[in-house]
């Protein structure tokens, strides 16, 4: 059993002992801490809540609602809703914050509380640290009966989200409709359905094959939309002679694409292709996290704009995007952030933008993908004992590559002539992640072997 508390929320497995998993006690404590923090911003605050389709979601929701109401906080429950839908609902409702009940790409036995501010963005590091302190103290002031908060449901926000996407100048509904695209979607039995079918219908895409569609929360494939987990989607696109395959994670903030031959783009190239489209039509800069592909730098050079890197984590990317006025950004895991709509990873707006690019370019999906440089990325992870000095380990790795420029804003990133390697401690799992990109997989493996030899792991 696992429980991970971080500045962005609390995440863990369901079942087991309090303090060792995401137990009801831990949910109550963390919801209480968040509610106490929210009450500093308003006398009678409102919090928006949405959840993905995990089987534990309703139970966790009930615990959170009861806790917030007992603190005198009003709750608006969006029901089953994508993460980006909750994000846009908060400012639309003039609410003071929000909680998304989702463990994103983690397996179905996990769940989590993702915490948002009144802008519908992830809370800052300083606010997260304050909430963690509140949770540790667990000294909450509950209200008397006549001051208990209200609870209402509002399931209209998927439609409002779609309406907002359709109003974007770079989303061309007519071009998409005219292209008569045939599409397959894999919504991993969560809130990608009904949101993606509704979006496609609104865009004029009427030939749609759905797999893993029913949102019952019992995921029919591994939740993360990586190439190795999309074999059924690739097969479906190929067998039905479709133009495109679309896959998301359980909370619909990550987008993966499959071309007309049933070949996966690679999650890194979702943001690459959409950034190319945005920068071709909008002056401005681009920003992404340190673990994102060099192809984004190539796109920036193509359009003669600056590319900026940030620490890993959506809140860090958003902070960098605001700082440099980026018109597009995100994370190489398929997370597209388009500030024209909102500052959050959003697979729905990513779908609309890519379909517009596909329709207006008069090219196939494979032809669009072939426009971009191909890099090979190796993703590895190492589990360490708690007594390992990670900072010293990273310095040992750095010393072993004296020829490399480095970046240490988030772990350690080494820059090679034809690629890079990034090591960092995960915010969501008890591991150290190693991402390596190079012009060939053999070179990436060679770098990984050297790093593992330095860290004395096999």
From TrEMBL:
The keyword Phosphoprotein applies. Belongs to the phosphohexose mutase family. GO terms for molecular function: magnesium ion binding; phosphoglucosamine mutase activity; phosphomannomutase activity. Pfam families: PGM_PMM_I (PF02878), PGM_PMM_II (PF02879), PGM_PMM_III (PF02880), PGM_PMM_IV (PF00408). One of its GO terms (cellular component) is cytosol. Residues 8-140, 161-262, 269-374 form the Alpha-D-phosphohexomutase alpha/beta/alpha domain. Keywords: Isomerase, Magnesium, Metal-binding, Phosphoprotein. InterPro entries: A-D-PHexomutase_a/b/a-I (IPR005844), A-D-PHexomutase_a/b/a-I/II/III (IPR016055), A-D-PHexomutase_a/b/a-II (IPR005845), A-D-PHexomutase_a/b/a-III (IPR005846), A-D-PHexomutase_C (IPR005843), A-D-PHexomutase_C_sf (IPR036900), A-D-PHexomutase_CS (IPR016066), Alpha-D-phosphohexomutase_SF (IPR005841). This is Phosphoglucosamine mutase. It comes from Draconibacterium sediminis. One of its GO terms (biological process) is peptidoglycan biosynthetic process. Its cofactor is Mg(2+). Residues 398-452 form the Alpha-D-phosphohexomutase C-terminal domain. Gene3D superfamilies: Alpha-D-Glucose-1,6-Bisphosphate, subunit A, domain 3 (3.40.120.10), Alpha-D-phosphohexomutase, C-terminal domain (3.30.310.50).
């Amino acid at each position: 059993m696992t429980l991970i508390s971080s500045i962005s929320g609390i995440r863990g497995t369901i079942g087991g002992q309090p303090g060792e998993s995401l137990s009801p006690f831990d949910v109550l404590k963390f919801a209480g801490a968040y509610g106490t923090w929210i009450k500093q911003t308003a006398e009678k605050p409102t919090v928006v809540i949405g959840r993905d389709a995990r089987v534990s979601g309703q139970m966790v929701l009930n615990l959170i609602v009861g806790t917030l109401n007992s603190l005198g906080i009003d709750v608006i429950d969006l029901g089953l809703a994508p993460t980006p839908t909750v994000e846009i609902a908060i400012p639309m409702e003039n609410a003071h914050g929000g909680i998304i009940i989702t463990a994103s790409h983690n397996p179905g036995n996990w769940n989590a509380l993702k915490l948002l501010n009144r802008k519908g963005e992830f809370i800052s590091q300083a606010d997260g640290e304050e909430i963690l302190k509140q949770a540790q103290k667990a000294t909450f002031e509950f209200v008397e009966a006549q001051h208990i908060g209200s609870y209402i449901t509002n399931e209209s926000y998927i439609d409002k989200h779609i309406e907002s996407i359709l109003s974007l100048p770079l989303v061309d509904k007519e071009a998409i409709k005219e292209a008569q695209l045939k599409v397959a979607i894999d919504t991993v039995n969560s809130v990608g359905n009904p949101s993606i079918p509704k979006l496609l219908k609104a865009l004029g895409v009427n030939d749609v094959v759905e797999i893993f569609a029913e949102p019952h929360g019992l995921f029919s494939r591994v939740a993360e939309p990586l190439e190795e987990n999309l074999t059924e989607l690739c097969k479906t696109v190929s067998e039905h002679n479709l133009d495109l395959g679309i896959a998301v994670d359980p909370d619909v903030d990550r987008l993966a694409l499959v071309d007309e031959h049933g070949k996966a783009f690679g999650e890194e190239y979702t943001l690459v292709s959409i950034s190319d489209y945005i920068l071709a039509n909008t002056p401005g800069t681009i920003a992404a996290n340190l673990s994102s592909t060099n192809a984004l730098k190539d796109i920036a050079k193509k359009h003669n704009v600056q590319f900026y890197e940030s620490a890993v984590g959506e809140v860090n990317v958003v902070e960098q995007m605001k700082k440099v006025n980026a018109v597009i950004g995100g994370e190489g895991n398929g997370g597209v952030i388009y500030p024209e709509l909102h500052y959050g990873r959003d697979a729905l707006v990513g779908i609309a933008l890519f379909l517009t690019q596909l329709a207006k370019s008069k090219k196939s999906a494979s032809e669009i993908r072939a426009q971009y440089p191909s890099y090979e990325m190796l993703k590895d992870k190492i589990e360490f004992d708690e007594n390992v000095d990670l900072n010293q380990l990273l310095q040992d790795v750095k010393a072993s590559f004296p020829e490399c420029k480095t970046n240490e804003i988030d772990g350690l990133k080494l820059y090679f002539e034809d690629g890079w390697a990034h090591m960092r401690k995960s915010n969501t799992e008890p591991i150290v992640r190693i991402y390596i990109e190079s012009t060939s997989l053999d070179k990436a493996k060679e770098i990984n072997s050297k790093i593992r030899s330095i860290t004395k792991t096999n």
